[in-house]
């Protein structure tokens, strides 16, 4: 077991922002860490990277209880490296940025040069070795940060939204790097992201956080909504134009999740029939095993999971207008006072 945690809490003043009863993370896997904004993902990553200590509860790393003694934490930080979404680089050369961690570890100069070159090769950045790091683009900066982490041969790599601020080309490059590092070096990886598709492409396991707590199921399509009644039926208003039906009657503001597999799409020529059907545009279609994941823009983005056979008979393409049906049984209320 790589990590285990019990009753792990982080509080700021009166506010508990992370409250994890139980967590087990196996070595050698890629874990996707998902959750809406403010759900505690970065807080959990900081604890797992030993950059912060919990307010209460226990964390074990490779079977040993983690204590908040500075020297012990320092030793653990050599095994676990967090690649931040906005890496802080020294305003020197790419070479010196990657070399720094090796110098700190007392690696001799000739060996350092070889390791820096190999690490830059791994991320396709060897040609930038003498560039000033502050001249790099967002994607190159992220790849340099990965090379800097890899140079130190960590046992565990943690990524905080590695592709959030990069273009598609760099996103593909970074996903390939993560995949190769995992395959070739058998490194354990925890990847915090908002991108469900990225998780399905890269991760074997998923951890989902909601309001600082672990959630048993992976909620997607999370919205804040105002509940109202129409003809005695409870509806949740997502935007001025969009409302979805609820299975139970509640009042006020709520936070809800719409299960992607419950949503039905129809060609826009089909009769709308029910008033809750909404129109949207298909923005992206991706194969996920025996399913197709469709990203539909209906004013707000909606992720839809369609069995392959059903999708084939639908014959919809990217750019098509579709009718969207979100049945009440697929809408779960996550919290009141949304
Ligand atoms: N140093 C801090 N002091 C006070 N509150 C904090 C501090 N750091 C984080 N928080 C709060 O803890 C909660 C969880 O934050 P965290 O950054 O872990 O969420 P997240 O899931 O990573 O969000 P995002 O997806 O937006 O990055 C937030 O409400 C945040 O405001």
TrEMBL record:
SUPFAM superfamilies: MOP-like, P-loop containing nucleoside triphosphate hydrolases. Residues 3-236 form the ABC transporter domain. Transmembrane segments: none annotated. GO terms for cellular component: plasma membrane. Keywords: ATP-binding, Nucleotide-binding, Transport. GO terms for molecular function: ATP binding; ATP hydrolysis activity; transmembrane transporter activity. PANTHER family: IMPORT ATP-BINDING PROTEIN. This is ABC transporter related protein.
């Amino acid at each position: 077991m790589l990590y285990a945690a019990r009753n792990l809490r982080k509080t700021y003043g009166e506010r508990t922002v992370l409250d994890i009863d139980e967590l087990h993370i196996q070595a050698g896997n890629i874990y996707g860490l998902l959750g809406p904004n403010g759900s505690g993902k970065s807080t959990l990553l900081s604890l797992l990277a030993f950059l912060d200590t919990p307010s209460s509860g226990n964390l074990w790393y490779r079977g040993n209880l983690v204590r908040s003694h500075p020297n012990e934490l320092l030793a653990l930080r050599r095994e676990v490296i967090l690649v931040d979404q906005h890496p802080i680089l020294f305003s020197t050369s790419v070479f010196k940025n990657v070399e720094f961690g090796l110098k700190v570890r007392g690696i001799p100069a000739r060996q350092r040069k070889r390791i820096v070159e190999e690490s830059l090769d791994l991320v396709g950045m060897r040609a930038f070795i003498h560039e000033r790091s502050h001249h790099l683009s967002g994607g190159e900066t992220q790849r340099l940060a990965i090379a800097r982490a890899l140079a130190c041969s960590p046992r565990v790599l943690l990524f905080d939204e590695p592709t959030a601020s990069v273009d598609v080309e760099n996103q593909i490059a970074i996903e390939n790097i993560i995949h190769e590092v995992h395959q070739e070096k058998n490194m354990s990886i925890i990847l915090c992201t908002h991108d469900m598709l990225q998780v399905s492409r890269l991760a074997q396991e998923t951890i989902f956080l909601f309001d600082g707590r672990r959630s048993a199921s992976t909620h997607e399509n999370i919205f804040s909504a105002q509940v109202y009644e129409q003809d005695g039926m409870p509806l949740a208003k997502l935007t001025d134009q969009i409302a979805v039906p609820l299975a139970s009657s509640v009042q006020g503001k709520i936070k809800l999740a719409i299960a992607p597999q419950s949503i039905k799409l129809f060609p826009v020529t089909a009769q709308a029939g029910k008033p809750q059907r909404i129109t949207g545009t298909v923005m992206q279609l991706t194969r996920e095993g025996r399913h197709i994941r469709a990203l539909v823009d209906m004013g707000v983005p909606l992720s839809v999971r369609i069995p392959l056979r059903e999708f084939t008979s639908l014959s919809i393409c990217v750019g098509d207008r579709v009718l969207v049906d979100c049945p009440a049984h697929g809408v779960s209320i996550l919290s009141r006072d949304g």
